[in-house]
C-alpha cells in the first residue's frame, strides 16, 4: 500500500549546532557572520558552497576569511568578485560590510544533505553567527513527522536542533524581517532602546542613559542606533 503524504506544508524556523563545522567555528571566534546558500556535493566527492561574509567592519570580515582559510575543515576558500552592475545576491546582509566567498570542504562535515534527503527545502539563506546556524525550511509533512525527522537528524549528525517557530506555508513569497538586516550589536542596541521606552511618548529614556547601561559612549550608542534605524526604515514602503 502506498503511503499517503501529508497535504500540510509547513515553514520551520530552526536553530542548530553540529560538530566539525568550519562555519560554526569561525563565526564563534569572530564578530562577523555568514549567509549560506546551500551546499552542492560534486561527483568527485567534494562539497562546494557560496557564502556572504558580513560584519560591522571590513576587518571583522577579513579575520573570518583568514580563519576559514586556516581551518583544517576547509580545502579551499576563495573570494568571489562580481563585475560592475552585477548584484551578488538578492538578500540584504546584516552589518555594514560584506564579502562573497566560495568554499570547498569535506561533505561529511555538512549537515545539508541530512535535511535535503528527508524532503526539507530551503526557504531563504542560512544565517550563521556566534557559532550557531538559523535555518528557514519548508516541509511537506505534518508536525509530528517533522519532529521525528529532526530528531533523526540530531541522532545521525550528533546535532542539537531547536525549533523556533512552525507555521503553515501558504505559498506566499518569503520576506526578510527588518531586524534580520541588523548586525548582532545593532540589534542589541535597538532592542535595548525600544525595551526601555526610547521610542515611547513621552520618551522613557535618554540616549546618554542607555549608553551608560551598556558601558559605551553616547556617540557610539547613537551611531549604532541610527544605522539600525536606517536599515529598518528602508523596509517600509
Automatic annotation (TrEMBL):
The UniProt record lists the keyword tRNA-binding: no
A Pfam match: HTH_10
Origin superkingdom: Archaea
Residues covered by the HTH bat-type domain: 182-233
Alphabetized Gene3D superfamilies for the sequence: Winged helix-like DNA-binding domain superfamily/Winged helix DNA-binding domain
Keyword Transcription: yes
Family matches, as InterPro entries: HTH_bacterioopsin (IPR007050), WH-like_DNA-bd_sf (IPR036388)
Keyword annotations of the record: Transcription, Transcription regulation
Protein name, UniProt field: Helix-turn-helix domain-containing protein
Organism whose genome encodes this protein: Halocatena marina
Lineage of the species this protein comes from: Archaea, Methanobacteriati, Methanobacteriota, Stenosarchaea group, Halobacteria
Amino acid at each position: 500500500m502506498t503511503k499517503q503524504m501529508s497535504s500540510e506544508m509547513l515553514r520551520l524556523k530552526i536553530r542548530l549546532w553540529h560538530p566539525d563545522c568550519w562555519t560554526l567555528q569561525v563565526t564563534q571566534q569572530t564578530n562577523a557572520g555568514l549567509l549560506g546558500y546551500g551546499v552542492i556535493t560534486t561527483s568527485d566527492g567534494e562539497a562546494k558552497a557560496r557564502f556572504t561574509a558580513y560584519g560591522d567592519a571590513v576587518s571583522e570580515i577579513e579575520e573570518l576569511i583568514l580563519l576559514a582559510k586556516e581551518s583544517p575543515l576547509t580545502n579551499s576558500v576563495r573570494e568571489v568578485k562580481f563585475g560592475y552592475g552585477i548584484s551578488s545576491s538578492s538578500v540584504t546582509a546584516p552589518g555594514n560590510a560584506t564579502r562573497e566567498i566560495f568554499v570547498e570542504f569535506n561533505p561529511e562535515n555538512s549537515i545539508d544533505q541530512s535535511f535535503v534527503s528527508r524532503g526539507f527545502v530551503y526557504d531563504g539563506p542560512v544565517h550563521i553567527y556566534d557559532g550557531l546556524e538559523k535555518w528557514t525550511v519548508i516541509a511537506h509533512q505534518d508536525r509530528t513527522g517533522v519532529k521525528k525527522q529532526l530528531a533523526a537528524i540530531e541522532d545521525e549528525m550528533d546535532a542539537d536542533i531547536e525549533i523556533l517557530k512552525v507555521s503553515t506555508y501558504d505559498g506566499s513569497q518569503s520576506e526578510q524581517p527588518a531586524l534580520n538586516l541588523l548586525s548582532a550589536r545593532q540589534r542589541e542596541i535597538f532592542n535595548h532602546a525600544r525595551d526601555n521606552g526610547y521610542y515611547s511618548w513621552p520618551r522613557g529614556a535618554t540616549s546618554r542613559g542607555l549608553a551608560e547601561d551598556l558601558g559605551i559612549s553616547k556617540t557610539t550608542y547613537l551611531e549604532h542606533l541610527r544605522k539600525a534605524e536606517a536599515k529598518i526604515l528602508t523596509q517600509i514602503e
